[in-house]
Amino acid sequence: MSENSEYIVIKAKAQGVQVIGLTRGQDTKFHHTEKLDKGEVLIAQFTDHTSAIKIRGKATVITRHGSIETDE
């Protein structure tokens, strides 16, 4: 794992927010899924295996580049 791995914070603003990790490589595949309840916070990390994180539901996403609110 790289020392420069990027972290993001996801705070659920509604029940049932899904956070899905996607793999690196020739074929992008789901490799991890979490479901958050309203108010829960997840700290996620981009790694050698995780190239993307997909978020479904109403949440605040905070990165070193700023924050964004998802739509429902």
TrEMBL record:
Residues 4-71 form the Tryptophan RNA-binding attenuator protein domain. It comes from the Bacteria. Transmembrane segments: none annotated. Keywords: RNA-binding, Transcription, Transcription regulation. InterPro entries: MtrB, Trp_RNA-bd_attenuator-like_dom, Trp_RNA-bd_attenuator_dom. Pfam families: TrpBP (PF02081). Oligomer of 11 identical subunits arranged in doughnut-like structure. Belongs to the MtrB family. This is Transcription attenuation protein MtrB.
